[in-house]
Amino acid sequence: MSKVIADISMSLDGYVTGPDPGVEQGLGVGGEALHTWAIDSDDPIDVAVLAGATEQSGAVIMGRRLFDIIDAPGGWDDSMGYGAEHAGTPPFFVVTHTPPSAVRLGLDFTFVTDGPAAAIDQARPAAGEGHVVIMGGGDVIRQCLFDGLLDELRLHLAPVVLGRGTPLFRPGDRQSLVQTSAEVSSTAAHLTYEVIA
Amino acid sequence: MSKVIADISMSLDGYVTGPDPGVEQGLGVGGEALHTWAIDSDDPIDVAVLAGATEQSGAVIMGRRLFDIIDAPGGWDDSMGYGAEHAGTPPFFVVTHTPPSAVRLGLDFTFVTDGPAAAIDQARPAAGEGHVVIMGGGDVIRQCLFDGLLDELRLHLAPVVLGRGTPLFRPGDRQSLVQTSAEVSSTAAHLTYEVIA
To answer: How far apart are the CA of A83 and the nearest CA of chain B, in angstroms?
Structure first.
């Protein structure tokens, strides 16, 4: 059955970006260490986790800052399968107050101006048999988690302490989860949690 | 070879206790969820992780607050193998500015007044072939990690977001680690990291 899944990489101290994320720094100073498993690993477990996630994604939701990073020159490109030739990539839904005037990437982007819940409502029918995957940023995922919109949280825990950046959780957050599966590679612990309603 | 190992349970948002830890609340409000794997699990993986850690411990280091919690009435007791009958338990070294005037538990406690590094120096010969295990609190472990005193960090990641409590890491901390092994039970992800000098 189609699920709503948040899927994000996190440091041991709970950051999903390094300091100063944005178009200039990508995922922040030192933030690339969070994504070694996805970008720079030939560990078969990492490769399988990434391929499985891609294959299961029927539609993808992201926040505006993440969109700006990947749509900027130097962001996603053809070599990653995200350029002009994009057959097979899922539709993307971007949560933003103000849609951009132009989009560089030749992908199927929809800009949703009334919040994450509305983005999920639009993404569900577009996802078909696949899952609705929220790939970040941290604020969108956190809001979906605590608004009860998630079925599953997938954390890719990188072996690094970043010290600063965008925290996934905030003081006062409380949530119990059920750990359902985990796979560990040389570069990350891939942890899957079911969200308890 | 004997190693210096920090071994502690942590929430997904990085807390090693809930709010208000101390003699009254133990490991803080909601903090018991951190230790389900050790205290209330019959999952064979949890049982094996706990037994392995106990067996390998040649000497144990802890901070003063943790000592106060376990030495208070309602803390450790005979049923946990930590009462008057304590053959086989390792020597304990407590880092404190002011040793207590009396100790309830019939265990081998040494109070070390000149910091964690001195406690490790005293614990090493006492550990024999076993490891020196730092079981908390978070401040002692953090200090040892960033002072370069640890060989290994073992985190037991509980599937809970606590929102408040004692964080293991602080803003500004930076450290790369090497993930060396992991075992996942139904109640926790047991993650082992080698500390890079």
So the answer is: 33
Q: For each of chain B's 197 residues, which pLDDT tens digit applies?
A: 799 999 999 999 999 999 989 888 888 888 999 999 998 899 999 999 999 998 999 999 999 999 999 999 888 876 665 654 555 689 999 999 999 999 998 889 999 999 999 999 999 999 999 999 999 999 999 999 999 999 999 999 999 999 999 999 999 999 999 999 889 999 999 999 999 87
Residue B119 half-sphere exposure toward CB, CA atoms < 13 A: 33
- Delimit the domains of chain B by residue range: 4-195
pTM of the model: 0.93
Indicate yes or no: CB of A175 within 8 angstroms of CB of B160: yes
Mutation target to probe the B interface, by most B beta carbons within 10 A, among A184, A194, A196 is A184
Q: Let me know how long chain B is.
A: 197
Identify which of B103, B61, B66 has the alpha carbon closest to the alpha carbon of residue B83: B103
How many Cβ pairs within 8 Å bridge chains A and B? Answer: 98
* Token output for B169: 């890491």
- Provide ipTM, 2 decimals: 0.92
Distance from CA of A26 to the nearest CA of B (A): 19
Cα separation of B66 and B140, whole Å? 10
Q: Are B19 and B29 in contact (CB under 8 A)?
A: yes
If phi > 0 it is left, if psi is from -120 to 50 it is alpha, else beta; for residue B31 that is alpha
Burial class (CB in 10 A: 0-12, 13-18, 19+), A110: middle
Which CATH number is B4-195's, of 3.30.1660.10, 3.40.50.1360, 3.40.430.10, 3.40.250.10? 3.40.430.10
Which residues of chain A make contact with B138, given a CB cutoff of 8 A? none
- Per the rule left: phi > 0, alpha: psi between -120 and 50, beta: everything else, A21 is beta
